[in-house]
Amino acid sequence: MARILCYTSPGRGHLFPVMPILLELRRRGHDVVLLTLRDEVARVDSTGLRARPIAAAIEDITHDDWGTSSPVAALDRAVRVFAARGAHEIGDLEEAIRTERPDVLLVDFNCWGAAAVAERSGLPWALFLPYFLPWRLPGIPPFGPGLAPRVDRLGRLRDRIVSTLLLRVLDRNLPLLNGLRSDLGVPPLDHMDELGRTAPRILYFTAEPFEYPCPVRPASVVMIGPTTWEPPAAAPEWLARNDRPVVLVTCSTEYQADDVLVSTALEALAGEEVFVVATTAAVDPSTFPVPDNARVERFVPHRPLLERAVCVVCHGGMGITQKALAAGVPVCVVPFGRDQFEVARHVEVAGAGASLKAKALTPARLRAAVRLACSRRSGAERIAGAFQAAGGAARGADELEALLRQNPRSRVVWSLPA
User: Which domains does the chain have, with CATH numbers?
Assistant: First the structure.
């Protein structure tokens, strides 16, 4: 059996999706080591996996793009954060390779320094990607603004212009990424759009038709559908005492100033014949006035709620959105930033819910959007079937095992500096 070393960025939205694959690999007899957030190490250990914290300096660099003045400034800030973290990832992963002597590396797409180490290592390696693929591909709108697909001449012109403008912004920070690669002797990239293209395999945590069809998507990109995991927890006793249909409202697990979504949803749905359960995550739950038909908690296990949910209202994080759709529950997305505009548009195009711009957020508009989303349950159920057919954790484990068979050099570790 092989030893698999997995390296994640400091975000639960990236840790939780990869957990089912790692647990499946362990079930098959592989030795799995995970480097991740220090606050999650004990919980990961409790599942039977071996976990170590990533370098403290990585977690100390806060992804605070929510506080910037514009989408362009937010994009610039995100690139700088990933590059700054990447500088610390290099030594961190090098030391883990020396200590663990793995056979296969699995690296978070957002870990630019760790990915460069994997590329240089001589070991079989793969990336995992829990959000939409940010590459320029024919027929796919440029990643970021949340444009709907258009294949006519005007649509192709729109995509070319927007893609050029976005890449110009991204490429301003290309020297930061190539600086990391240069330190390891890895060839530089010509554009930020080439990020991840050298990986032998990318485990892509979505599937068509939620993802837009693309006949020329590289063979290295394997769509396995979303994988869902949450820390073991019993269903809350208060849920059993309420027999009304549930509307789940969620904030991001990383603070993004999206608490207005909870306050607006509580007001919007106060008079509806539903039970509103809001999970605030990074936001203090005691700050919200709670109507009689609602409950506000920092964390509640989502699985028992989704079994009774008629809609999920969220910021459009890929994790909660796909978790809802995988359960056949339609989604009402109010995007605030990052990849959330893309998620909102994909939900609409798939006919699996509705979306509302954050700047247009009012109780009346949100109430109407929730009602519209609830009417699109059949679209969510169609997506659920496609996700299940994609293979999930078992398919991801199969791909890593195939990667090892194609490159069977056991524990070949390049000469790392002392």
Answer: 3-225+391-406 (3.40.50.2000), 237-388 (3.40.50.2000)
